[in-house]
Specification:
- The complex is a heterotetramer of chains A (832), B (517), C (103) and D (549).
- Chain A is mainly α and 832 residues long.
- Chain A is built from 35 helices and 6 strands.
- Chain A has a two-stranded parallel sheet with strand order 1-4.
- The relative contact order of chain A is 0.09.
- Chain B has a two-stranded antiparallel ribbon with strand order 1-2.
- In chain B, strand 1 and strand 2 form a beta hairpin.
- In chain B, helix 13 packs antiparallel against helix 18 and helix 14 packs antiparallel against helix 19.
- The longest helix of chain B is centred in the last third of the chain and has 36 residues.
- Chain B is globular and about 75 Å long.
- Chain C has 103 residues and is mainly α.
- The relative contact order of chain C is 0.14.
- Classes of the chains: A mainly alpha (832), B mainly alpha (517), C mainly alpha (103), D mainly alpha (549).
- Chains in contact: A-B, A-C, A-D, B-C, B-D.
- Chains A and D meet through strand 5, helix 9, helix 10, helix 32 and helix 34 of A and helix 7, helix 12, helix 14, helix 17 and helix 18 of D.
């Protein structure tokens, strides 16, 4: 008994406290005020309101750090004491001496187990929740409030830091823009909304925050709305997200009722974990929420909005579409992990919907990143791929790894985006093939920082990406097949393979980007106006030049972080480091299961062999791509971007593959074709998804649950995932193999994307508008209106006929009168 | 064979004059005197009488209100008076008193409307008012008549002058035709009615309505003859109230007659017809609801629907008003259909009809008054003549809208309460066919707005024809007064219906009340 | 003598009268037809009155008939006056031509 | 002062606009500024009185009627002048009091042809009296009268100052509504005769009564089930036309499209609410049993309306017509909330009414102002509003966002709780069915985003078409517009952030309205029982009152 408890960490949790943790609402509030001030007074300020935004966000950053520090100290306090029950369900930290004694007593009994877990002695820590009544309905009060724990403070730090850097960067990047003030106002609003979202104490607030970040994203993607392409992209983003929101609404509503009418994140998790909530309901809500995650975090097949969202200014892409907003989905899963963990039965399984979708996404994203000419699009697909990685990690139970990856990714991806922005600032274009090349000569700092970001992204040790990626791969538990020593939540071998392939592809495409951008010969200089809309900066034509300090310093800071943050979560036992230095991130961030709102999850053992293997895979991918670009292409001509006589021109299969990828699996064709249609199309697809979920929900939930149905649903789902898994495996293997040869089957992927998915959604959209028109014309105006109008016309016509009765002939009147009298009298005589 | 004894007895009885209640007869006598005076003035003063006759007629009418008021103060409502001895032949009760007052006020308004119209024509004036007053006298008598003979005499007394008034503009072909049609149809209808009366007399052996009721209520009586008799009598008055299919004369006559007379026919004569119907139904036929309910149901349904539908397609405003009046009559008939269900419902039903009559009088006379005022300028009663009225005579347009909307039954103008009380009566009966009729009435309300609304919208939404002189219009004082009185009444009745119900919530005519179990 | 004989006579007169009113085009003839109907009524009233009477009762049937005769005279007087006016204006008393007002 | 407000507050607030209208009738037409001053002054006085009422309102007893006045009116039919205010009607009353003066201010700068401010403003004042009266009336006949008073001014507003097809639209509007209200009146009368006022403990002890207080507290329990169903059916059509529910909605797009801006705003902001208010104030509390039987149909029509309205929007080229169709969809959400027969759903519905009033009103304002500038609302010809009038463009985008139910703005709190309530309707209803409705309604939110953003993109984004590129008439928001719009914008945000401002008020009143009271005040929660038990519960209630039919 004791041994078990010890292995699982502390058995009881004490309440954390502290001013910063309790008053974390101040942080989003500052940004909201900043928004209001910039909106109303920004134009009249010397710097167009940007100074307000920067001041506010820096203040928030400081506050976030203080909050984080307070949390860490609270964790430390809990570590050093033992929770003693002072009343039913309430624990407090026992004074140090007593606690120490007890702890050592535990220690003696437990022996070996102590090494496994931090919490051999010590207490768990409960999140700090402060709430207030928000609204009441049906006699029930609903609260608004904040919840602060490790996850919250992590996100606070990430959001405020990246946001600060982006603010600073933007002052240069969008300088001179006609909507400069408006831009900063929305940055503030976005930051406020995102902070509101991550500090939410209940799911209702999460919905609010979720939608608000979506609308900011809409406004910022469409920042240059004069171009229809931009507003189309904004619309597409918003509507695709709206589709997911449908799942979010339904999922949250199901959760609300399933958990006995509460929105509280903690209560929902608690009830899910102790199996009070019906498993079916959990499954349904998890699936519905998954739709939301798919749209917001760009998971396959609702990811197509994300590359289009690159129409927005680059700092926005860095902040919203790489570091923060797009991870909202990941955060949602992490926050409601009890629901997902139990609902999707993550423990002890080898496949589930979340992991599978994450896996597919990561492959799709990586393969598509291969064929992009636009540097931002490469990064966008890379983001999709990395988000898939995080989803995959959450799906396999590697919670800490996922959040850690979120953390590291935020820095290096922001760095890459900002770097790309810096380059484009110089060349007024994002097209690597036509306008870049050899940039390292012109922009040494940008080059260096970009290179660091790329290495971190590729996952080479010892940069940040390596550590987080490695933890995810470990967390799949799949390596256990080979080592036979699983200590994970399940045996997700398929996911491991997918992750590994992605790692290889990531390394390869980043190598390609580095070559195309920074090596070879500068291909730009023939600047024409339709590029570079991104920069109001009207430029010194001629040779590109290095960007200014307000752009470079954020790059430097992020580069530094991209190198170092990985060390925050060294694997336990790494190089014999003491426990106090390893797994710091996990220790402080992962909620204690003793706090009852986080499931008991296992932590897979780190594996040297896996780390080495993955490093080798990455290095070989780099080598292959290096050989292709730096050697073969460069040899052909320093200005060349591809081999004239490359594999795609030689093999028709590869050619087809390339086309496929070029067309992004044709997904967008489905979603897009006719302007407002994309939204609708996506809407319909999503609604189909939602309907499926809904109908399952409808007949499963109504009154008693059909017991026989439950296992069959689970089975069906598992079967489905397995089939998907196999297909995915085959596909990804093929893609992976091909990627070493050259831009291999990437084409195939893009073909599916563009021709199948995109075209389908597109068609759905077009058809639905046609349907709308048909309904309007034929039913509304045709049937209903006509019926009403013709009733009018009919009575009027009857009036016309009746007029003829009054012929003007007096005797005819008499006849009618007499006939009427006779009929009436006859009738009365007969019936009576 | 009639024996000598009985002959002597008869004579003795005939000469045994019953005590006459002069107070109860005072309104009729006053009116008679005024009428005679006006006619005499005509003979004596000839053309010189022109200036004063309208005034005398008007003041005389108001004078009639004096005995009516004294009777009311006397407590007639709770304590009915029999004018001739104890027999229920001529009864003055609350019900008849209210109606008498209504007739007098209607007549007064018609006089106001006539003053300028007649004075500006080139016909003999005093005759006009004399005939008008004698027709009104017939109406007063009708309100109290509880005997077939009296009903008949009252009917003829009110009709014959009306025939002549319709033909007033004797050199105008249309006026001739209007009168002739009215006359021929009217005489034919009263002939049919008389035939029915003779049958009822044969069955019951009495002309007194109370006794008829008692006699035909017994099972022994021949049902077929009773049915025929009742139906024919109802037909006679259905003609008077212009119920479908006995309504065809109305539009033609209305169109051809002088407009004030049209108003008089549309309101006064119609009200008199209803009063007669009510007397007959509540006093004479009450026990035979199996006959009159279905008959009235059919008439009501046809009248509402056909009246409304035909009105939809009228281009002449007077004809439109005629058909609208037909439809309105249908509503009143609808309230009468449930009269026989029970004593309480008879009560509601009678109140509903009286309420309706009062409100209808106000709004319909008002509409006619405005038509009179407008046609002074446009000289045309075509609907198109009202196009853009709002531009050049906004006050008239607004008031016309008030009347039209009230006729359509939209709150808060009087008409809604009239319709409402009909619905109340129908629904209180709580029988399926009454619900059906109520539903039909509801639909008819909507159809009716089709033409009232169209007319209103033409006044507001259209442009006045270019040819029209659109300088502001001077309305003669008498006409102004008529419009003001009717408008105030229409609005007041709608906003504060108690103003009507205070009068219209009468007891059922005394005889039927006595029968109430 | 039976009541039915009088009633039949009255009914026949009534029908002839109705026929005349509805069919004859001459206005004067129509007026005369109306008189026929009224007379049918009078026969009814008098017959009913005579056959139903109790000894010593009033004679409402006969009285009614007298009223009808008197009123009919007045009515026909008015009618003839109207016909005259029409004749004066139209030079015709054909009822079928009197159809200015319709619809 | 307090006693004065208690006794006279409601009456004054209702009739002051009418008095203003009468005063204006006496002022010559040429004196335009005088008319404007009188109209604005009157409505402002009414609004101030409204604020006084708000201040004197006892929030602790928001479920009870306050400021009750009970005077005799039409004795014959036992109909009385009863007015009162509770948490359910207060928000709508204030909405009306607020919207009308703003509309008047807006109209100062935008008198549509044929001008004539005198009549225009007079009609609006009469309209206001009708609307206010409907929300405070506690007697069915009084309610009916006010309900109908509204029709005529609106008929003329559309017919005189409307667009090209105004005659057709106005007549259609009128006839449709008249049809509904005629049937509604019959239902009221049937209630009058069939219900037994003595059953309700609170009311005056007369058998036949129009007193809404009595009728909503059990007086109707004596009515047989089938009669209840018929009566509810009549009201359903009466109120449903006004809402408007599919398939009674076809008057709405025409009326909205043709109406002058202010007319559209009032129509959307207040008039449509009369229908839904009728449901929550009259139909459901009076006849809960029949409501339970009708609820599946109401819910079905509501979700059809949601999807149908959205599809209708997607097929439009005219901006105003699009907004009009969106009303059909939004009122679908309100009706969905009502159809759940839970306090939760009905609260959501009341919130939805206010929110829709503010938001759609705002959208119509912007559409109207755009029409003034561009003289067309054909979306194919518009574009680039953000360039030519950036502030107006952002207001449009803001209102569209609010309309599509963005959290943090008022629209969300009407829409989301309605969807939420549909998951868990009253026990007596089939939860499975409503969950199906819920999913469809959620789909509606996606479509809503689709058509609204599409509209914004078509009109506000992009660059102006050549036709309007250099049109000097196109300018940004004017001062009058700012004055009229600012309160709307602020309230949309305020209610979005702190929905309790409304929920707090409506909740007790709604809870109270749903309670079915039996004899001697024994409350029976029949609606919250499973289907068969619930029906048995209603039957028991009837037989306890001696009428088993």
């Amino acid at each position: 008994m004791h041994a078990f408890l010890a292995a699982e960490g502390p058995s009881a949790a004490i309440q954390a406290g502290g001013w910063f943790l309790e008053n974390v609402w101040i942080i989003p509030a500052i940004m909201a005020c900043s928004f209001a001030i910039i909106l109303f007074f920004g134009k009249r300020m010397p710097k167009g309101g940007s100074e307000i935004g920067i001041a506010a966000v820096l203040a928030c950053f400081v506050l976030s750090l203080l909050t984080g520090a307070q949390w860490i100290s609270e964790v430390n306090r809990a570590d050093n004491c033992v929770a003693v029950e002072i009343s039913e369900g309430k624990y407090e930290c026992e004074s140090h001496e007593g606690a120490g004694e007890q702890a050592s007593a535990f220690g003696e009994v437990l022996g070996a187990a102590e090494e496994e877990s931090e919490g051999a002695y010590g207490a768990g820590l409960k999140a700090v929740v402060s709430e207030r009544t928000w609204w009441s309905n049906g006699g029930v009060n609903f609260t608004i409030g904040t919840m602060a724990d490790g996850l919250t403070v992590t996100l606070l730090a990430v959001v405020t830091l990246v946001s600060s850097l982006v603010h600073i960067y933007s002052t240069d990047y969008v300088a001179g823009d006609r909507r400069f003030t408006h831009y900063f106002a929305f940055l503030s609003l976005f930051t406020a909304a995102m902070l509101f979202f991550v500090t939410s104490a209940n799911t209702l607030q999460m919905i609010v925050g979720w939608e608000l970040v979506g609308v900011c994203s809409f406004a910022l993607i469409g920042h240059w709305w004069e171009d229809q392409a931009n507003s189309d992209a904004a619309l597409k983003a918003f509507l695709t997200n709206r589709v997911g929101d449908m799942g979010l609404l339904i999922g949250m509503i199901v959760l609300f009722f399933a958990s006995g009418e509460t929105w509280s994140i903690i209560d929902i998790n608690k009830l899910a974990i102790d199996h009070t909530t019906s498993h079916t309901l959990l499954l349904i809500s998890a699936l519905c929420l998954l739709t939301a995650v798919m749209s917001k975090s760009g998971q396959f097949f609702l990811h197509t909005w994300l590359p289009d969202a690159m129409a927005g200014p680059t700092p926005v892409s860095a902040l919203i579409h790489a570091a923060t907003m797009v991870v909202a989905g990941i955060y949602l899963v992490a926050r409601l992990y009890g629901v997902f963990f139990e609902g999707l039965s993550i423990a002890g399984s080898s496949i589930n919907a979340l992991a599978l979708i994450g896996g597919i996404t990561t492959l799709v994203g990586a393969s598509l990143a291969f064929v992009q000419d636009d540097i931002k699009k490469v990064l966008a697909y890379s983001t999709i791929s990395q988000l898939g990685y995080m989803a995959l990690a959450l799906g396999v139970g590697a919670w800490t790894a996922a959040i850690f990856h979120l953390f590291t990714h935020a820095f290096f991806k922001a760095l890459l985006f900002l770097g790309a922005g810096s380059v484009s600032h110089a060349v007024h274009s994002f097209n690597m093939k036509t306008d870049m090349g050899g940039m390292r000569k012109f922009m040494p700092t940008t080059y260096k920082t970009f290179l660091i970001g790329s290495i971190a992204l590729a996952g080479l040790p010892p940069l940040a990406g390596f550590w987080s990626k490695d933890e995810i791969l470990v967390g799949t538990g799949g390596w256990g097949f080979f080592e036979g020593k699983p200590h994970s939540n399940g045996a997700y071998t398929v996911m491991l393979i997918m992750g590994m392939i992605t790692a290889a592809m990531t390394a390869a495409y980043m190598t390609r980007v580095i070559y195309l951008t920074f090596y070879g010969e500068f291909r730009g200089g023939h600047h024409d106006d339709d590029h570079g809309h991104a920069d109001a900066h009207d430029a010194h034509h001629g040779d590109p030049h290095e960007s200014g300090p307000r752009i470079l310093w954020p790059l430097r800071i992020l580069a530094f972080l991209a190198v170092t943050v990985g060390f925050l979560n060294l694997p336990p036992g790494f190089l014999g480091l003491p426990k106090g230095l390893t797994e710091r991130f996990g220790h402080y961030v992962e909620p204690s299961s003793a706090a009852k709102y986080f499931p008991k999850i296992n932590h897979a053992d780190p594996s040297w062999s896996l780390a080495i293997f993955s490093t080798i895979v990455v290095l070989s991918a780099v080598a292959a791509a290096y050989w292709y670009y730096f050697v073969k292409v460069n040899r052909q001509s320093p200005a060349a971007t591809e081999l004239v006589n490359g594999p795609t021109s030689r093999s028709s299969v590869l050619k087809a593959g390339h086309t496929l990828l070029k067309n992004r699996y044709y997904l967008d064709h489905i979603y897009d074709s006719g302007k407002p249609v994309p939204a609708v199309g996506a809407g319909i697809v999503a609604s189909l998804f939602g309907l499926a979920a809904g109908s399952a929900l409808g007949f499963t939930l109504d009154n008693g649950l059909n017991q026989a149905f439950l296992p069959s649903l689970t089975w069906g789902l598992s079967l489905g995932t397995v089939v998907f898994g196999i297909v995915g495996l085959a596909l990804s293997t093929g893609v992976g193999v091909a990627s070493f040869v050259k831009k291999p089957l990437a084409w195939a992927t893009n073909w599916t994307h563009e021709n199948l998915l995109d075209a389908t959604v597109d068609q759905v959209g077009v058809r639905s508008v046609q349907a709308a028109e048909a309904v309007y014309k034929h039913i509304d105006q045709g049937v209903i209106d006509t019926a009403v109008n013709s009733a009018g016309a009919g009575s009027s016509g009857a009036g016309g006929e009746l007029r003829r009765l009054a012929s003007g002939k007096v005797q005819q009147y008499g006849t009618i009168m007499f006939a009427g009298a006779t009929l009436l009298a006859g009738l009365m005589i007969i019936i009576i | 064979m009639i024996s000598l004894v009985s002959f002597v007895g008869l004579f003795a009885e005939a000469f045994n004059r019953p005590p006459i209640d002069w107070h109860a007869l005072a309104p009729e006598i006053t009116l008679l005197v005024v009428g005679a005076l006006v006619t005499l003035l005509d003979v004596v003063l000839l053309e010189k009488g022109r200036a004063i006759t309208p005034a005398i007629a008007g003041l005389g009418l108001l004078a009639v209100l004096v005995p009516i008021v004294t009777l009311a103060v006397d407590g007639v409502a709770s304590n009915p008076r029999m004018a001739f001895g104890g027999s229920e032949v001529y009864v003055v009760d609350g019900y008849s008193l209210v109606l008498k007052a209504l007739f007098i006020i209607i007549a007064y308004l018609v006089v106001l409307m006539s003053t300028n119209y007649i004075a500006e024509g080139d016909y003999w004036e005093s005759e006009y008012y004399g005939m008008l007053l004698s027709s009104v006298l017939g109406m007063l008598v009708m309100a109290s008549a509880r005997d077939l003979i009296t009903v008949f005499v009252a009917l003829e007394l009110l009709s014959i002058p009306a025939y002549l008034l319709a033909t007033w503009r004797k050199r105008d072909l249309k006026s001739n035709e209007a009168g002739l049609k009215y006359y021929l149809n009217g005489v034919f209808a009263s002939a049919l009615m008389l035939y029915g009366m003779s049958l009822l007399f044969g069955v019951s052996g009495s002309t007194i309505l109370v006794e008829i009721n008692a006699a035909i209520g017994e099972a022994a009586a021949s049902t077929a003859i009773i049915s025929l008799g009742i139906v024919l009598v109802i037909v006679g008055f259905a003609f008077k109230v212009s119920a479908v299919p006995f309504h065809l004369w109305a539009p033609d006559t209305y169109e051809g007659s002088p407009t004030p007379i049209t108003a008089f026919l549309a309101v006064g004569a119609k009200a008199a017809g209803f009063v007669a119907l009510m007397n007959l139904i509540f006093v004479g036929f009450w026990s035979r609801s199996d006959v009159y309910s279905p008959a009235l149901w059919i008439l009501a349904a046809l009248t509402m629907t056909i009246g409304n539908l035909t009105a939809l397609r009228q281009n002449n405003l007077i004809r439109l008003m005629a058909y609208s009046g037909v439809a309105q009559a249908g509503f009143m008939l609808a309230a009468l259909t449930v009269a026989g269900e029970s004593a309480e419902i008879a009560q509601t039903s009678a109140s509903a009809v009286v309420t309706y009559l009062i409100i209808y009088a106000a709004m319909n006379l008002g509409a006619f008054a405005i038509i009179l005022a407008v046609t002074r300028r446009t000289a045309s009663a075509e609907v198109a003549a009202f196009d853009g009225l709002f531009q050049w005579a906004p006050a008239l347009a607004v008031l016309m809208t008030v009347f039209l909307v009230s006729l359509a039954g939209i709150p808060p103008l009087g008409g809604w309460y009239a319709k409402f009380s009909v619905f109340t009566a129908l629904l209180e009966a709580n029988v399926w066919w009454a619900y059906v009729l109520a539903g039909l009435a509801a639909i008819n309300t909507v159809i009716a707005f089709g033409y009232y609304g169209r007319l209103a919208s033409r006044m507001w939404f259209e442009k006045a024809p270019d040819s029209l002189d659109t300088t502001s219009l001077r309305v003669p004082f008498a006409l102004q007064a008529a419009i003001a009185i009717t408008a105030v009444a229409t609005i007041a009745f709608g906003v504060y219906p108690a103003a009507v119900t205070h009068f219209s919530d009468i007891d059922v005519p005394a005889a039927a009340a006595a029968l109430v179990p | 003598m039976y009541l039915v004989q009088f009633l039949l006579l009255s009914a026949v007169l009534f029908c002839i009268g109705v026929y005349g009113v509805l069919v004859r085009r001459n206005a004067v003839l129509v007026l005369m037809s109306i008189e026929l109907i009224l007379n049918a009524v009078n026969i009814n009233l008098v017959a009913f009155g005579a056959f139903n009477r109790d000894v010593g009762a009033a004679i409402p049937g006969e009285v009614f008939a007298l009223f009808i005769i008197a009123v009919a005279a007045a009515e026909v007087g008015v009618g003839l006056a109207m016909v005259l006016t029409i004749y004066r204006n139209r030079k015709s008393i054909d009822l079928h031509q009197v159809d200015l007002l319709k619809g | 002062m307090e006693a004065f407000i208690d006794d006279w507050g409601l009456t004054l607030v209702t009739f002051i606009p009418l008095v203003g209208a009468l005063v204006m009738m006496a002022i010559p037409r040429v004196n335009e500024s005088m008319h404007k001053a009188v109209a604005l002054g009157t409505t402002l006085v009414a609004a101030v009185l409204g604020v006084l009422l708000l201040a004197n309102f006892d929030y602790g007893a928001a479920g009870d009627l306050q400021f009750v006045v009970d005077k005799s009116w039409i004795d014959v039919i036992n109909s009385r002048y009863i007015v009162g205010l509770d948490g359910m009607s207060l928000p709508l009353l204030l909405l009306t009091l607020g919207v009308v003066p703003l509309c008047i201010i807006y109209s100062f700068a935008h008198f549509p042809e044929p001008h004539n401010p005198k009549t225009f403003l007079t009609l609006i004042l009469v309209l206001e009296t009708g609307m206010l009266g409907s929300f405070i009336a506690q007697d069915l006949i009084l309610f009916f009268v006010f309900f109908e008073v509204v029709l005529l001014p609106m008929f003329f507003l559309i017919g005189v100052w409307g667009g090209d097809d105004r005659r057709y639209a106005s007549l259609k509007f009128f006839l449709y509504t008249l049809f509904g209200s005629a049937l509604m009146l019959i239902s009221f009368l049937a209630l009058f005769f069939l219900a037994d006022g003595t059953v309700a403990e609170s009311a005056a002890a007369t058998v036949n009564t129009f007193d809404m207080r009595a009728l909503s507290t059990g007086a109707t329990s004596v009515i047989g089930r089938s009669a209840q169903l018929w009566i509810f059916g009549g009201m359903f059509i009466g109120f449903g036309v006004k809402v408007p529910m599919f398939p009674f909605h076809t008057w709405l797009p025409d009326a909205h499209t043709q109406a002058p801006t202010v007319g559209s705003v009032i129509l959307a902001a207040v008039l449509l609410k009369l229908g839904t208010y009728g449901f929550v104030r009259i139909a459901i509390p009076f006849l809960p049993e029949a409501a339970a039987a009708w609820a599946p149909i109401i819910g079905l029509l509501a979700v059809i309306g949601i999807i149908y309205g959205a599809l209708g929007c997607l097929a439009q080229q005219d901006m105003k017509r699009l907004i009009a169709f969106s009303s059909v969809a939004h009122m679908g959400f309100v009706m969905l909330g009502i159809s759940t027969l839970t306090d939760f759903g009905i609260n959501a519905a009341v919130f939805g009414m206010v929110a829709h009033g503010l938001i759609t009103g705002m959208l119509f304002f912007v559409a109207g102002s755009m029409k003034d500038r561009y003289h067309t609302l054909d979306m194919n010809r518009l574009g680039g509003l953000l360039l030519q009038g950036p502030k107006m463009g952002w207001i449009l985008a803001f209102a569209a966002m609010a309309s599509l139910g963005l959290p943090g703005l008022a629209g969300f709190w009407g829409e989301f709780p309605a969807i939420l309530a549909a998951y868990n309707p009253a026990e007596i209803l089939s939860a499975g069915l409503w969950r199906g409705y819920m999913v469809v309604a959620a789909l509606g939110t996606v479509l809503a985003a689709g058509y609204l953003l599409w509209m914004v993109q078509k009109t506000a984004f992009g660059t102006p078409t050549e036709e309007f590129e250099n049109d000097p008439h196109i300018h940004d928001v004017t001062a009058f517009e700012w004055i009229a719009w600012t309160p709307f914008l602020i309230l949309i945000v305020v209610f979005g952030f702190y929905p309790n401002l409304i929920f707090d008020l409506t909740d007790p009143a709604v809870i109270k309205s749903l309670k079915v009271e039996g004899l001697n005040g024994t409350a029976a929660d029949c609606l919250e029982m499973a289907k068969s038990a619930g029906e048995a519960c209603f039957a028991d209630l009837r037989s306890a009152l001696g009428s088993g039919n």
